[in-house]
Amino acid sequence: MKLVRHHALVAGAMIAALAASSVGCAESSPETVHELVALIKTNPGKYSFASGGTGTQPHLAGEQFRMSLGLDLVHVPHNGGGPALASAIAGHTPIIFSTLSPGGAFHKGGQVAC
Q1: Which residues pair with 48 in a beta bridge?
Q2: How buried is 35 (Cβ within 10 angstroms: 0-12 exposed, 13-18 middle, 19+ buried)?
Q3: How far is residue 31's CA from residue 90's CA, in Å, rounded to a whole number?
């Protein structure tokens, strides 16, 4: 197995990408990210997360979240942040990773939590 070293700029870009993302969930039961993680771990294979598309910054943040915590989550790509947010609000996709701007108003309005 070959050891791959990460360049400092790449690692810094990943940290910046995670900091620029927000996670929300349409279900009202988890109020914190810790509660959401516990819920996912107790129900493996049940949860999926939406993003604005494959390879987008929210998708990569969701994958980093999934992989770093060892979660059983499926990515559901959408054609943009708007459709992903609509899917989460309608309850079709219980978790969404989004950029901070589109999801902020819905978080303040209580339509998505976490």
Answers
A1: 74
A2: middle
A3: 18
What domains appear along the chain, each with residue ranges and CATH number? 22-108 (3.40.190.10)
Length of the chain: 114
Using the predicted structure, report yes or no on whether residue 11 has a pLDDT greater than 50. Answer: no
Q: Which residues contact 103 (CB under 8 A, 6 or more apart)?
A: 22, 24, 81, 85, 96, 112
Nearest C-alpha neighbor of 91 from the set 55, 47, 43, 56: 47
Tell me the per-residue pLDDT of 58-92, one tens digit each, with 9 for 90 and over. 899 899 989 999 999 999 999 998 898 888 888 88
Residue pair 88/112 in contact by the 8 Å Cβ criterion: yes
pTM: 0.68
